[in-house]
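so my prof wants the structure for this chain in the C-alpha coordinates format not the other one, which i didnt know existed until like an hour ago. anyway here's the sequence
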Amino acid sequence: MGSCRWADSVRTLPNGRKTFVKALDAKMTIKDLVSRLGNRKPKEDREAYYLQSQDGNIYRDTPHYSGDPEDLNMFQEYIKRDVEWMKGAVGRESEAVNLWIGDSRSTTSLHHDPFENIYHVLAGSKIFTLLPPIETAHLKQRFYAPSTLQRDENNDLVPVLDPALARPSSSSSSSFSSSRDGPPKIPWVASKQTPKSSRKIRVTLKEGETLYLPAGWWHRVEQEEGDEGLVVAVNYWYHHEIHPAQYAHERLFRRVAIASGLKESVVPPMGDEVADEIYESDPDGEE
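here's what i got, hopefully its the right format
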Protein backbone atom coordinates (compact mmCIF):
# COMPACT_ATOMS: atom_id res chain seq x y z
CA MET A 1 0.00 0.00 0.00
CA GLY A 2 1.41 3.37 -0.94
CA SER A 3 0.93 6.90 0.31
CA CYS A 4 1.39 9.55 -2.37
CA ARG A 5 -0.74 12.12 -4.24
CA TRP A 6 0.93 11.45 -7.59
CA ALA A 7 2.07 7.83 -7.53
CA ASP A 8 5.51 7.37 -9.12
CA SER A 9 6.09 10.82 -10.53
CA VAL A 10 8.74 13.51 -11.05
CA ARG A 11 9.10 16.15 -8.32
CA THR A 12 11.51 18.98 -7.57
CA LEU A 13 13.56 18.84 -4.35
CA PRO A 14 14.18 21.98 -2.23
CA ASN A 15 17.66 22.27 -3.80
CA GLY A 16 16.08 22.47 -7.26
CA ARG A 17 17.06 18.98 -8.35
CA LYS A 18 14.39 16.85 -9.98
CA THR A 19 13.83 13.27 -8.89
CA PHE A 20 11.56 10.32 -9.66
CA VAL A 21 9.58 9.83 -6.43
CA LYS A 22 8.17 6.48 -5.35
CA ALA A 23 5.37 6.20 -2.80
CA LEU A 24 5.95 5.32 0.84
CA ASP A 25 5.11 1.66 1.49
CA ALA A 26 3.00 1.11 4.59
CA LYS A 27 1.49 -2.04 6.07
CA MET A 28 -2.11 -1.98 7.34
CA THR A 29 -5.26 -4.07 7.32
CA ILE A 30 -7.90 -3.72 4.62
CA LYS A 31 -10.30 -2.52 7.32
CA ASP A 32 -7.93 0.27 8.35
CA LEU A 33 -7.33 1.27 4.73
CA VAL A 34 -11.06 1.51 3.98
CA SER A 35 -11.64 3.61 7.11
CA ARG A 36 -8.91 6.05 6.03
CA LEU A 37 -10.37 6.28 2.55
CA GLY A 38 -13.79 7.00 4.04
CA ASN A 39 -12.41 10.03 5.91
CA ARG A 40 -14.45 13.05 4.82
CA LYS A 41 -11.94 15.74 5.82
CA PRO A 42 -10.88 18.21 3.09
CA LYS A 43 -8.55 16.50 0.63
CA GLU A 44 -5.72 18.95 1.25
CA ASP A 45 -5.70 17.94 4.95
CA ARG A 46 -5.28 14.25 4.26
CA GLU A 47 -2.58 11.98 2.88
CA ALA A 48 -3.40 9.82 -0.10
CA TYR A 49 -3.66 6.09 0.58
CA TYR A 50 -3.69 3.66 -2.31
CA LEU A 51 -3.52 -0.13 -2.45
CA GLN A 52 -1.19 -0.51 -5.41
CA SER A 53 1.15 -3.40 -4.60
CA GLN A 54 0.70 -4.83 -8.13
CA ASP A 55 2.71 -7.82 -9.39
CA GLY A 56 -0.23 -10.17 -8.98
CA ASN A 57 -1.24 -9.18 -5.45
CA ILE A 58 -4.36 -11.38 -5.51
CA TYR A 59 -2.73 -14.60 -6.71
CA ARG A 60 0.85 -13.89 -5.61
CA ASP A 61 2.85 -16.94 -4.54
CA THR A 62 5.19 -15.04 -2.22
CA PRO A 63 4.00 -12.21 0.09
CA HIS A 64 5.83 -8.86 0.15
CA TYR A 65 6.41 -9.05 3.91
CA SER A 66 8.05 -12.12 5.46
CA GLY A 67 5.80 -14.02 7.82
CA ASP A 68 2.63 -12.71 6.20
CA PRO A 69 0.07 -14.91 4.48
CA GLU A 70 -0.43 -14.46 0.75
CA ASP A 71 -1.20 -10.77 0.27
CA LEU A 72 -4.84 -10.68 -0.86
CA ASN A 73 -5.77 -14.31 -1.39
CA MET A 74 -9.03 -13.70 0.50
CA PHE A 75 -10.32 -12.07 -2.69
CA GLN A 76 -9.70 -15.13 -4.87
CA GLU A 77 -13.23 -16.29 -4.04
CA TYR A 78 -14.64 -13.21 -5.77
CA ILE A 79 -12.12 -12.39 -8.51
CA LYS A 80 -11.38 -14.83 -11.31
CA ARG A 81 -7.85 -15.86 -12.23
CA ASP A 82 -8.40 -15.03 -15.90
CA VAL A 83 -10.57 -13.20 -18.39
CA GLU A 84 -11.60 -16.15 -20.54
CA TRP A 85 -11.99 -14.31 -23.85
CA MET A 86 -8.62 -12.58 -23.42
CA LYS A 87 -6.98 -15.86 -22.45
CA GLY A 88 -8.34 -17.36 -25.66
CA ALA A 89 -7.19 -14.38 -27.72
CA VAL A 90 -3.56 -14.40 -26.55
CA GLY A 91 -3.34 -18.15 -26.02
CA ARG A 92 -2.05 -18.05 -22.45
CA GLU A 93 -3.07 -17.30 -18.86
CA SER A 94 -2.70 -13.89 -17.25
CA GLU A 95 0.70 -13.07 -15.79
CA ALA A 96 -0.74 -11.02 -12.92
CA VAL A 97 -4.09 -10.09 -11.37
CA ASN A 98 -3.97 -6.82 -9.42
CA LEU A 99 -6.45 -5.22 -7.02
CA TRP A 100 -6.50 -1.42 -6.68
CA ILE A 101 -8.27 0.42 -3.84
CA GLY A 102 -8.09 4.21 -3.37
CA ASP A 103 -9.96 7.49 -3.76
CA SER A 104 -9.76 10.69 -5.80
CA ARG A 105 -6.64 11.89 -3.98
CA SER A 106 -4.54 9.36 -5.91
CA THR A 107 -3.58 9.99 -9.52
CA THR A 108 -1.30 7.76 -11.57
CA SER A 109 1.12 9.81 -13.67
CA LEU A 110 1.58 9.28 -17.40
CA HIS A 111 3.35 6.00 -18.18
CA HIS A 112 3.09 2.85 -20.29
CA ASP A 113 3.31 -0.86 -19.50
CA PRO A 114 4.82 -3.78 -21.45
CA PHE A 115 1.67 -5.89 -20.95
CA GLU A 116 -1.70 -6.31 -22.62
CA ASN A 117 -4.03 -4.89 -19.98
CA ILE A 118 -7.67 -5.66 -19.14
CA TYR A 119 -8.95 -3.09 -16.62
CA HIS A 120 -12.30 -3.49 -14.81
CA VAL A 121 -13.87 -1.03 -12.34
CA LEU A 122 -15.76 -2.52 -9.38
CA ALA A 123 -16.67 0.71 -7.54
CA GLY A 124 -16.40 4.40 -8.38
CA SER A 125 -14.93 5.46 -11.72
CA LYS A 126 -11.55 5.79 -13.44
CA ILE A 127 -10.70 8.53 -15.93
CA PHE A 128 -8.05 7.44 -18.44
CA THR A 129 -6.12 9.84 -20.65
CA LEU A 130 -4.71 7.65 -23.44
CA LEU A 131 -2.01 8.27 -26.04
CA PRO A 132 -0.88 5.77 -28.70
CA PRO A 133 2.84 4.82 -28.80
CA ILE A 134 3.48 7.06 -31.83
CA GLU A 135 2.83 10.09 -29.58
CA THR A 136 6.03 9.33 -27.65
CA ALA A 137 7.90 12.00 -29.63
CA HIS A 138 5.61 14.68 -28.14
CA LEU A 139 6.42 13.71 -24.56
CA LYS A 140 9.26 15.19 -22.55
CA GLN A 141 11.20 12.24 -21.14
CA ARG A 142 14.39 12.45 -19.10
CA PHE A 143 16.45 10.28 -16.77
CA TYR A 144 15.86 10.99 -13.07
CA ALA A 145 17.57 9.82 -9.90
CA PRO A 146 15.10 7.69 -7.88
CA SER A 147 13.87 8.66 -4.42
CA THR A 148 11.28 7.34 -1.97
CA LEU A 149 8.86 9.19 0.30
CA GLN A 150 9.84 8.94 3.97
CA ARG A 151 8.70 10.49 7.26
CA ASP A 152 10.72 13.43 8.56
CA GLU A 153 11.00 14.63 12.18
CA ASN A 154 7.63 16.38 11.83
CA ASN A 155 6.01 13.20 10.48
CA ASP A 156 5.60 14.85 7.08
CA LEU A 157 6.26 12.94 3.87
CA VAL A 158 9.39 14.08 2.04
CA PRO A 159 11.30 12.48 -0.87
CA VAL A 160 14.71 11.05 0.06
CA LEU A 161 17.16 10.02 -2.66
CA ASP A 162 17.72 6.26 -2.80
CA PRO A 163 21.13 4.98 -1.65
CA ALA A 164 23.62 3.54 -4.11
CA LEU A 165 22.45 0.25 -5.58
CA ALA A 166 24.15 -2.43 -7.61
CA ARG A 167 24.16 -1.19 -11.18
CA PRO A 168 23.56 -3.36 -14.25
CA SER A 169 26.56 -4.08 -16.44
CA SER A 170 26.99 -2.02 -19.60
CA SER A 171 26.32 -5.11 -21.68
CA SER A 172 22.91 -5.77 -20.16
CA SER A 173 19.71 -4.70 -21.90
CA SER A 174 18.12 -2.10 -19.68
CA SER A 175 16.04 1.03 -20.17
CA PHE A 176 17.75 2.51 -17.11
CA SER A 177 20.72 4.84 -17.53
CA SER A 178 23.83 3.15 -16.14
CA SER A 179 26.88 5.31 -16.66
CA ARG A 180 27.56 6.65 -13.16
CA ASP A 181 28.01 5.46 -9.62
CA GLY A 182 24.82 5.29 -7.59
CA PRO A 183 21.35 3.90 -8.27
CA PRO A 184 20.26 3.63 -11.93
CA LYS A 185 18.33 6.64 -13.15
CA ILE A 186 14.78 6.09 -14.34
CA PRO A 187 13.32 7.40 -17.61
CA TRP A 188 10.02 9.19 -16.99
CA VAL A 189 7.76 11.88 -18.43
CA ALA A 190 8.51 15.16 -16.66
CA SER A 191 5.11 16.85 -16.88
CA LYS A 192 1.94 15.69 -15.12
CA GLN A 193 -0.07 17.06 -18.06
CA THR A 194 -0.15 15.76 -21.62
CA PRO A 195 1.14 18.16 -24.32
CA LYS A 196 -1.51 20.14 -26.20
CA SER A 197 0.00 18.96 -29.49
CA SER A 198 -0.58 15.28 -28.69
CA ARG A 199 -3.57 13.33 -29.96
CA LYS A 200 -5.11 11.98 -26.79
CA ILE A 201 -8.24 10.02 -25.97
CA ARG A 202 -10.12 10.55 -22.71
CA VAL A 203 -12.18 7.64 -21.40
CA THR A 204 -14.30 7.48 -18.25
CA LEU A 205 -14.64 3.93 -17.01
CA LYS A 206 -17.61 3.49 -14.66
CA GLU A 207 -18.56 0.75 -12.24
CA GLY A 208 -19.06 -2.54 -14.11
CA GLU A 209 -17.21 -1.37 -17.25
CA THR A 210 -14.03 -2.85 -18.75
CA LEU A 211 -11.22 -1.29 -20.79
CA TYR A 212 -8.72 -3.09 -23.01
CA LEU A 213 -5.45 -1.15 -22.92
CA PRO A 214 -2.90 -2.37 -25.51
CA ALA A 215 0.72 -2.80 -24.47
CA GLY A 216 2.82 0.31 -24.98
CA TRP A 217 -0.06 2.79 -24.85
CA TRP A 218 0.58 5.78 -22.62
CA HIS A 219 -2.01 6.39 -19.91
CA ARG A 220 -2.62 8.76 -17.01
CA VAL A 221 -5.32 7.66 -14.56
CA GLU A 222 -7.50 9.78 -12.29
CA GLN A 223 -10.39 8.48 -10.21
CA GLU A 224 -13.62 9.51 -8.54
CA GLU A 225 -15.29 7.83 -5.58
CA GLY A 226 -18.67 6.16 -5.73
CA ASP A 227 -21.31 6.11 -2.99
CA GLU A 228 -19.00 3.97 -0.83
CA GLY A 229 -16.38 6.74 -0.71
CA LEU A 230 -13.69 4.74 -2.49
CA VAL A 231 -12.59 3.44 -5.88
CA VAL A 232 -12.00 -0.27 -6.46
CA ALA A 233 -10.68 -1.87 -9.63
CA VAL A 234 -9.02 -5.05 -10.81
CA ASN A 235 -6.77 -5.49 -13.81
CA TYR A 236 -5.21 -8.41 -15.65
CA TRP A 237 -1.78 -8.29 -17.28
CA TYR A 238 -1.15 -10.57 -20.25
CA HIS A 239 2.13 -11.26 -22.01
CA HIS A 240 2.79 -9.07 -25.03
CA GLU A 241 4.74 -10.87 -27.72
CA ILE A 242 7.23 -8.62 -29.50
CA HIS A 243 7.94 -9.69 -33.06
CA PRO A 244 11.39 -9.04 -34.61
CA ALA A 245 10.01 -6.56 -37.17
CA GLN A 246 8.17 -4.61 -34.47
CA TYR A 247 11.26 -4.55 -32.26
CA ALA A 248 13.46 -3.31 -35.11
CA HIS A 249 10.90 -0.64 -36.08
CA GLU A 250 10.74 0.70 -32.52
CA ARG A 251 14.54 0.95 -32.27
CA LEU A 252 14.69 2.70 -35.64
CA PHE A 253 11.98 5.17 -34.57
CA ARG A 254 13.86 6.05 -31.40
CA ARG A 255 17.19 6.49 -33.19
CA VAL A 256 15.67 8.69 -35.92
CA ALA A 257 13.85 10.80 -33.33
CA ILE A 258 17.04 11.33 -31.32
CA ALA A 259 19.05 12.12 -34.47
CA SER A 260 16.39 14.71 -35.32
CA GLY A 261 17.06 16.58 -32.10
CA LEU A 262 14.42 15.03 -29.85
CA LYS A 263 16.80 13.84 -27.13
CA GLU A 264 14.61 15.37 -24.43
CA SER A 265 11.55 13.49 -25.67
CA VAL A 266 12.62 9.96 -26.56
CA VAL A 267 14.32 7.41 -24.32
CA PRO A 268 17.14 5.70 -26.28
CA PRO A 269 16.77 2.04 -27.31
CA MET A 270 17.72 -0.50 -24.64
CA GLY A 271 21.46 -1.07 -24.50
CA ASP A 272 22.13 1.93 -26.75
CA GLU A 273 25.23 4.05 -26.13
CA VAL A 274 23.14 7.19 -26.72
CA ALA A 275 21.61 6.64 -23.27
CA ASP A 276 24.98 7.27 -21.66
CA GLU A 277 25.49 10.42 -23.73
CA ILE A 278 22.17 11.88 -22.56
CA TYR A 279 22.84 10.78 -18.99
CA GLU A 280 26.21 12.53 -18.89
CA SER A 281 25.01 15.76 -20.53
CA ASP A 282 21.82 15.96 -18.44
CA PRO A 283 22.72 14.49 -15.01
CA ASP A 284 19.74 15.86 -13.09
CA GLY A 285 16.98 15.65 -15.66
CA GLU A 286 17.19 19.39 -16.28
CA GLU A 287 16.92 21.26 -19.54
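also thought this was worth mentioning. Residues 165-179 have pLDDT under 50 and may be disordered.
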